[in-house]
Amino acid sequence: MTKRNLPAPEKRGSHFFSINSQEISVTVSEGSGKAAPARSDESAVTQPLSPKEAVIRVVSSWEGVSVHEHRFGGVEFRVGRRELGHLHPTFADLPFPRKVRDELIAARRASPHHVLPNSGWVTVPMRTAAEASDVIELFRQNYRRSNAGR
Hints:
This protein is of the alpha+beta class. It has a domain at 50-148: Aspartate Aminotransferase, domain 1. Helices cover 25% and strands 29% of the residues. The chain is built from 3 helices and 8 strands. The chain has helices at 51-59, 98-106, 129-148; strands at residues 12-19, 22-29, 65-69, 75-79, 82-87, 91-95, 111-112, 121-125.
């Protein structure tokens, strides 16, 4: 996949997408050509997106995020050389400091990584609109953490 640098998250508007017959409100950059019109528009249409497509659309719209093919398949998001996480067809894998990872697992927001259960990585399901929204929020946590160190 190609590297994409898009507008900062502050310059976004809310949009609605239909995911598996459920509607989810996601925020993407205005004028990026990446989203359906806001629902308040008279001409608004919802675009059917899979949870994975919705996550790709939102996370790839953040400033400084590049999208790559993951070495084991799937879609990987990076800020600079740092991986924010990657997507498989129905779940996401994200790295966190061990303390955060343990808190996410204790709160049942994530499971230990499916291959490296004793690492800081977590696995999060992404089959429904609600799960896609959770995955987006976890990517946002990593994005903020990666920008805090700059």
